[in-house]
Amino acid sequence: MAKIISYNVNGIRAALKKDWIEWLKSEDPDVVCIQETKAHKDQLDLSIFEDAGYKTYWYSAQKKGYSSVAIFSKTEPDHVEYGCGIEKYDNEGRILRADFGDFSVLSCYFPSGSSGDERQEFKMDFLADFNDYIIELRKTRPNLLISGDINICHEPIDIHNPVSNKNSSGFKPEERQWITDFLALGFVDTFRTLNKEPDNYTWWTYRFGARGKNLGWRIDYHFITESLSDKLTGSGILSEAVHSDHCPIVVELDVKL
Fold first, then answer.
1. pTM, 2 dp
2. Which residues are tagged catalytic?
3. Homologous superfamily assigned to 2-253
4. Do residues 246 and 210 lie in contact, with contact meaning Cβ atoms separated by under 8 Å?
5. Could you count the other beta carbons within 10 Å of the beta carbon of residue 215?
């Protein structure tokens, strides 16, 4: 059984100041996929992660203090793939993959389009290119777990105010359709497979006391290929963890690492 957590920490150095490493030890996952580390590994004391039992793999944006993903694992992967081979996304440190036998874990940080039309266009390009990348990857790596901050709410149940946000980046019809189409490629939204309840969110704005009122968005996901459906034993949202404007999500799979 493998316990895998995904967490957009909104800056790993800031999270560490909020006892993140103690939280990690208490949760004790086998693998952690991290988004928005906003750091290069030479800016950190890696021994604190090693002391907690993890080998760490970092894929950072060229721009300091921006984007960037990481994977921490108790088991050393057979192979780690840095980036997706598309320069404009790899420059922003958005995709990192670790292979364990015939099972692969990806830590992904999808672009946000909330800063304006140019970034929204970049986001839509990324979504189309990500599909092509995954379709090709699945030819050689058929058992995938895609973990991370997708920056999209899929259905009205996934956002606290669907009517007023119907044209907001992250809930635009074309973005929501992308998730529908992506699932139709043969992927499973692990959380919604096991939990149909409303009011389950993974991100809250820092404004308006949104988190205390649970006025949130579910934009973080663990997607698995349908080939792993019978291996899914648990999926949840760890909303009590407060190191970031996101909270971590967890999935449990009956796979060997």
1. 0.98
2. 149
3. Endonuclease/exonuclease/phosphatase (3.60.10.10)
4. no
5. 17
